[in-house]
Amino acid sequence: MSILLAVENLCVNYGAVEALKGISLELQEGGIVTVLGANGAGKTTLLKAISRLVPIKSGQIKLEGEDLSKFPAYTLANAGIAHIPEGRKVFATLTVEENINLGAYSVRNKLSPREIAKVKEWIFQLFPVLKERRRQLAGTLSGGEQQMLTISRGLVSRPKVLLLDEPSLGLAPILVQEIFQVIKQIHEEERVSILLVEQNARKALGVASYGYILETGRVAIHGSAAQLREDDRVRAAYLGGARVQPAK
């Protein structure tokens, strides 16, 4: 498989603070890569840098070999990147369907109305509750439903790369299970490449093929998901010493 997204020696500063210190990683076409680490390790900053939401001090980010520094942030959806931010940031006073429609706005010149309608129908198959509540205000949804909506808003643009920032944060265990099943389904059915930032290492390593562990802005450990599941350092710090089984 070819490399779809490449981050090379990426450095990001917040004032005098070095948030990212020379990070390099790769996401292959059709792959799922997870980025793990404690709070403050730089995971969210990494995704924001890829989305051009924070300035880059040095290094490169390439999508299909093309330097993303040439792209303003608002054009990245059209280029094929969808960023699902941490914290379920929905437009509370708009309906479920209006939120999803906004996700298609930036690709309206690339996708026909028929294609967008087809993607929306697939999304409603993924999340039937959203179809039932398509005319309901987004702000009245539960936390889990809002997370489904933010993922849907990204998917409707038919991205090549889906950046997922802490999709399980604050959700009940049964909803966490559902969200990760959907991530696996998105990958299998649409072959969307996914860069997944997560604190739930057990679930993340269950769906990913490769992973990176960040510590204070640097890549401390990386390897296949199988290797990380067996790594004593990863198991001690993130898995409670127990072995992790891949998702079925």
Describe the fold and architecture.
The strands form 2 sheets. Strands 6-7-8-3-9-10 form a 6-stranded mixed beta sheet, sandwiched between helices. It has helices at residues 43-50, 76-79, 96-103, 113-126, 128-132, 143-155, 173-190, 201-207, 225-230, 232-238; strands at residues 3-14, 17-28, 32-37, 58-63, 66-67, 81-84, 161-165, 193-198, 210-215, 218-224. With 248 residues, it is α/β, with parallel strands linked by helices. β9 (210-215) and β10 form a beta hairpin. The chain contains 10 helices and 10 strands. The protein has one domain (25-54, 66-238): Rossmann fold (3-Layer(aba) Sandwich), CATH 3.40.50.300.
Strand-and-helix sequence, N→C? EEEHEEHEHHHHEHEHEEHH
What's the main sheet like? Answer: 6 strands, mixed
Structural class: alpha/beta
Given as residue ranges, the uncertain stretches (5+ residues, pLDDT < 50) are none
Q: Report the CATH C-level class.
A: Alpha Beta
Strand content: 25-35%
How is the secondary structure organized here?
Layout: E1 3-14, E2 17-28, E3 32-37, H1 43-50, E4 58-63, E5 66-67, H2 76-79, E6 81-84, H3 96-103, H4 113-126, H5 128-132, H6 143-155, E7 161-165, H7 173-190, E8 193-198, H8 201-207, E9 210-215, E10 218-224, H9 225-230, H10 232-238
Parallel strand pairs: 3-8, 3-9, 6-7, 7-8
Antiparallel strand pairs: 1-2, 1-4, 4-5, 9-10
Provide keyphrases for this structure.
248 residues; alpha/beta; Rossmann fold; 6-stranded mixed sheet; 4-stranded antiparallel sheet; 10 helices
Give a nutshell description of this structure:
This protein is an alpha/beta fold and 248 residues long. It is built from 10 helices and 10 strands.
